[in-house]
Amino acid sequence: MMKLRLLISILLLSILLPSCNPNKTAAGRMDRAEDAINTAPEQALASLDSIRRTTLITAPRRARYALLKAMALDKCCIDTTDINLIMPAVRYYTRKGSPDEKMRTFFYLGNIERNAGKRESAMADYIIADESSPEATDYYTAGLLKSAIAGAYSRDFNSSKELEYMEDAIRFARMAGDTVGVWYYEAQLADCYFNNEMYSLSDSLYERFLKQPILDTLFYSEKLLVYAKSQLVRDTINCVKGLSLIQRAISLDMNAFSPDRYGTYAYALELSGYQDEADSIMNESAAKFGRDVPEVWKYKVAEHRGDNEAALEHLQNAMHYQDSVVLKVLEQSMLRQETVYLSQKASTMSDLLEKEKSR
Fold first, then answer.
1. Which of 6-20, 80-94, 116-130 has the lowest mean pLDDT?
2. 3-state secondary structure string, the chain?
3. How far apart are alpha carbons 110 and 132 in whole angstroms?
């Protein structure tokens, strides 16, 4: 009987002792967080927040925690700007990380920089992350990375590079089996095709996207409006289709509208013979957003009406604005971003060399 009790006591201790070990508890919670991070990010974040910082006693453990915390916050749409959050991962994985760890680290570092409004630094981080993507096996994150780079090129009006990276984003999403990502990326790829004046491919992809189940009403409505705009600014205008797409977007989510999209709507109404309604929509934009529709739409409406004096005035205003946009783009050009990237990489390598010398 004594032997049986002793055996039971030993078994109980063997079960309870690991759960009392804070180091093993921290590792287990990080494992659970990593498993849940893409499907249940709030749960992953809660698991990470329950870990005592004093248990993160090694550089590898601090690096893993920092990366997982940055990922969880990003997935929960908590746009942190605290770069120190991820620096343990940057310091460790730069030297000893796998391709996946390096890619994830610099991708999420780039997202934090982007949240802080540091676009050039964010792009530099994305480029460093992209260097690891050919050897990485985390195709899901590679798709997110390629999409982020495509977005950066889009903001700088580099349509050919935008297209290249968006095609890569879809390729990686398909490799990852990320059907939701493919849904989003295909719509963005349609935008890219239009920006590169590949109208047949653009229309075909938009039509395919619009026939699929709606996963995100706001995003779907936005793409309806982008597709509508594409019907109104090409050489062969299809105002009937453009207006139909806009009205469909209105029925789904008015939050997709902006002054530019009100301008698109006004121009579609103008071309369709609804002059009073077009004026009303332009006035509504000013009342709702506190600013008028862009001058280019006022120009197009005035030109269609044969009001040459007003058209000329709006055209001059539009050209002035375009000049300021061009100057801003040049200011934030890819050359400057690549310079930041090179200097940042050189600084990182210099720091690492100094650390190696002191070891």
1. 6-20
2. CHHHHHHHHHHHHHHHHHHHCHHHHHHHHHHHHHHHCCCCHHHHHHHHHCCCHHHCCCHHHHHHHHHHHHHHHHHCCCCCCCHHHCHHHHHHHHHHCCHHHHHHHHHHHHHHHHHCCCHHHHHHHHHHHHHHHHHCCCHHHHHHHHHHHHHHHHHCCCHHHHHHHHHHHHHHHHHHCCHHHHHHHHHHHHHHHHHCCCHHHHHHHHHHHHCCCCCCHHHHHHHHHHHHHHHHCCCCCCHHHHHHHHHHHHHHCHHHCCHHHHHHHHHHHHHCCCHHHHHHHHHHHHHHHCCCCCHHHHHHHHHHHCCHHHHHHHHHHHHHHHHHHHHHHHHCCHHHHHHHHHHHHHHHHHHHHHHHHHC
3. 14
pLDDT at 236: 92
Distances in whole angstroms, Cα of residue 152 to Cα of each of 52, 73, 127, 148, 162: 37, 21, 11, 6, 8
pTM: 0.80
Contacts of 127 by beta carbon, 8 Å cutoff, 6+ apart: 149, 337, 338, 341
Residue with tokens 């090129």: 153
Q: Would the pLDDT of 10 be above 90?
A: no
Cβ atoms of residues 61 and 89 within 8 Å: no
Q: For the segment 122-169, what is each residue's pLDDT rounded down to a tens digit? A: 999 999 999 999 999 999 999 999 999 999 999 888 999 999 999 999
Stated length of the chain: 359
CA distance 298 to 322: 15
